[in-house]
Amino acid sequence: MNIFFLISSFFRKLKIKDFIKPAIGGFIAGSIGMLFPAAIGNGYGWLQLILDGKWNDYAQIFLSAVAVMLGVSFTIGSGGSGGVFGPSVMIGGLLGASYSLFLNAQYSLNLHVPSFTIVGMVALFAGAAKAPLSTLILIAEMTGGYELLVPAMIAVFVSYFLSGEKSIFPSQVNTRLDSPAHMDEFGFYILEKLCVRDYMTPNPITVSPNQTLKEVEEILSKHLIGGLPVVAKGKLVGIVTKSDIQKVPSELREKKRVYDVMSTNLITVTEEESLAEVLRIFSSKGIGRLPVVKHKGSSELIGIITRADIGKAIREWKK
What we know:
There is one protein chain. By secondary structure, the protein is of the alpha+beta class. It folds into two domains: 2-162, no CATH class; 176-318, CBS-domain (Roll). Helices cover 53% and strands 9% of the residues. The protein has 14 helices and six strands. It has helices at 2-13, 20-35, 44-51, 58-77, 85-107, 113-129, 132-143, 149-162, 188-191, 213-223, 242-246, 258-261, 275-285, 307-318; strands spanning 201-202, 227-232, 235-241, 269-270, 289-293, 301-306. It has a four-stranded mixed sheet. Strands 2-3 form a two-stranded antiparallel ribbon. It is elongated, with a radius of gyration of 24 Å. It starts with a helix and ends with a helix.
């Protein structure tokens, strides 16, 4: 997915006419297809060759998987038309097949290549689409049985956690609460009348920029929270989250300081603002907490409001 987002970002920043970008992407994808024919088309025929035992070159299969990644990324990332379901399934299948064929060739094993191919197909799509449960149902449909369900469960959940929080579908929201289409289901019009001051946590726990990441990690674990405001000399200077800390290797967390990883590009709200406005910010920015300041432009922290507080307000309204 990182390749896909990197190439998409490159084309977005490219300062040329928009209609030229897909032409560049198509030329590169076509060039890749000339070297690796499996990178062109939906790819199901190539997977069928593997399942039938007619394509057994693990090196060529692995390189074809890389070619598909690049071809799809250049096509869609440049603004061209295409989907990601088929390529995700194909890449997973090719990687699963090449892995099993490699083990068979190098260690004289007798692994069942079609099983590895099918498990690879669903595992990669589960991680890319962040849809682990539906892909487990898919494996039963594809095989007509449950023999591969346990290995698929292991592969799917490993893929899901290793792939991080990003989905290959950029418009996919985390929950229905994040979806503008479903806001009315959560009493959005009621949230317009509720103020931040009534639901925020006043005088929240804060940390200083000079504290170690290890100390902050312990505070987060103790209080079961995901992030903390950073305050220096009475002024809000940043916010540090659990994900910021997790990006630093554990052995360095006693040496690294909060100022090394904290976010200083702050978004704040005031206590007079409505919960509806807070929810809009949460949904558009993909964040889960906001510092509350005394007034616009102020750096005086008076509280913090989270998604959980919005949920609390909705539950109270429903009662």
